[in-house]
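Team,

Forwarding the record for the chain on the shared tracking sheet. I've put the sequence and predicted structure together so nobody has to dig through attachments.
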Amino acid sequence: MNAAWRLWRNSRAYRALPLVAIWLAALLRFHALDAQSLWNDEGNTLRLIQRDVPELLGAASRDIHPPLYYLLLKAWWTLTGESEFALRAFSALSGILSVACAYALGVALFARGVGTVAAFLTALNTFSLYYSQEARMYALMALIAALAMLCFVKWLDSRRLALLSGMALLNAAGLYTHYAYPLTIAAQVVLFVVWFAARREWRTLSVYVAANTFTVALFLPQLPTALRQLSSWSQASRETSSLIGQIETISTWLLYGSTFERLNQGLVLLTLISALLGMTFGDWLRRPQRAAPLWWRRAVPTVWLIIGIGGFLALDLYRTANLKFLLPLQIAAALLVGRGIWLLWELGSANLVAWQEAAPRVVAVLLSYGLVGAASNGIQALYNSSAYARSDYRSLAAYIAREERAGDAILLSAPNQIEVFTYYYRGNLPIYGVPEGLGGDDAATRRQTEAILAAHRRIFAAFWGELERDPRRVVEQVLSERAFEIDTAWFGDVRLVRYAVLGALGKPRLVMARFGESITLREVALSAERLAAGDVLGVALTWQTDQPLSVRYRVSVQLLDQFGRLVAQRDAEPNNNMTLTTLWQPNVPVRDTHGVVLPPSVPRGTYQIVVVLYSLESGARLPVNSSDALPIGTLEIE
């Protein structure tokens, strides 16, 4: 073991490890870069950079993000084109350079070994990897933050004005990239205050203040727009979790990645040991006579993390969707843990016979192995699990193109859907965005939706993030009231619902059939008694319960041939999944509509229509009239 270690050390092959980390980062970030569809925000990015620069700046001023990323990507786009790969490649390159910066910071602060470990931790982290494969500004923000922190650290070492000027320019670029960037500047300021309190170098203070004043001056033209954007920024959804839970989630994303829910307790313990060692004076344990120079270096990753996380929580920014604001802190976490692993290695010995001397290195190896194993599992999940897939507008547009007919329309009920949808959809159906603008006017939304229904026979309605613009679900309520839902399909986290506009129903027929112990089907109405193959049968049901229900039931409307074989069906929870049985009030009627699509190849003849009510959890059918299905009418197919 000792001989092998000496051979490795003497060959200096370890000096190539940083290049391996950068190569690995490039491999992971460019792998399957265009496998997934662009999603809403990426579509917004594309439409912005397609505008002329003055129009881009005007549109960005109405957005919540500053314009620098869009301007840089526009320059990139003119060279590379607008394919998914090309649009995301700019972020991939930013992510790769961030890995190089993690190495450079580790070297500047501590040692080559620290930089190497930090580079690998950044390269393998799925939090960093995910946003390096997205056509948004977060990977760029992390790169700018790392570069600015590197200039700051090197300036404190050398006092070279070129480095301070670089920090000032990079900080201004960061402010023009994302409004969460001030958390990085705040960390620099706190670090400088701690440094100045120990040194009292007034000339250094004056030039540092001048550099930050320069940064502010560069940002002043954007400041009025920034204040307007931030004051009007609304976060519709709030997440209820304890402070401990929020810190735990943030720590998991920063240390292991965004694809982990449960981690091995042993790995967490070893990581904690490494982090604690990294934030303390572990150098004195290693070589008391050769402690790391410039004590303030030890504070950089810790202060960066504390200020970033503390500011994020203090500003009440915690939402899962907002954790990407903390992407620069992933590099700080990598530095902290990387330093701990390096110190453990340096504390130990390669002599395995003296186990007490080798124990720190064994711990370092076990932790490194655990982190690599966890990263491997997380990366596989990121690439293969549907839980981490983006909205699939590519498949959604292809589905509509296959199913569309003359007289149909497309309704997009979500912010920014039209930008990404029209990137993929090349058909001729009219496309409506509802609600208009930022939403909030329910009466106008209802009128607009009703007008769309009056003009078209079928509607493809795509719902995504609709609670931001339509929190009372007015669009879906009107569609359920005035049309019949045919089916629902999910494309990632986008829900596509098809509706048929069938006109007036026939006269309701009193049924009063008892399902189970407490549910009654009171009335049934059909849209037609004769239809052609390929048409849609509308069925309206009126339900009622005698007592509150604790079980969620699903309704199945089925079409059976003369032999009792299933020909067509439509299953959904009542009122198009909007009025769950667990929400029913005793003795209050519940209207429930279903659209059953007749297969294009169904033979002519007479078919029986039946209704089934079954448990969503177990699938068990409720009994009705000594059977498990209730006949409600017949249909003649011509």
